[in-house]
Write a structure and sequence with these properties.
Number of helices: 0
Strand content: over 45%
Oligomer: single chain
Radius of gyration: 13 Å
Length: about 110
């Protein structure tokens, strides 16, 4: 199973931006669909964005036009550019291959007003 290490979270003012990174172990990274997930305080973990091996992307409605998912296959890395952050974006962000059941430690994003 692939292992993931997320980074880039932090405390940001509403309207600000952050860029999350996720380094993924495994030799078949380039063909795997990857996802970013968010777990808000007291809520279930939900998918935020996904990207296929050929870089087709999908976003949940609440982040469309604000978040951008990308990948660098040479670096086994997935990114999540987050702009115009609002309070509802607060949570722990995780990444993993879509078909994996293994979660990393995540990275905390806190948006304050």
């Amino acid at each position: 199973q692939a292992q993931t290490v997320e980074s880039g979270g932090g405390l940001v003012q509403a309207g600000g931006a952050l860029r999350l990174s996720c380094v993924v172990s495994g030799r078949i990274f380039s063909i795997r669909s990857m996802g970013w997930y968010r777990q808000a305080p007291g809520k279930q973990r939900v998918v935020v964005a996904t990207i296929t091996g050929d870089s087709t992307t999908h976003y949940t409605d609440s982040v469309k036009d604000r978040f951008t998912i990308g990948r660098d296959n040479a670096k086994n890395t997935v990114y999540l550019e987050m702009n115009s952050l609002n309070l509802a974006d607060t949570g722990v962000y995780y990444c993993k291959p879509v078909d994996s059941y293994v979660w990393g430690q995540g990275t905390q994003v806190t948006v304050q007003s």
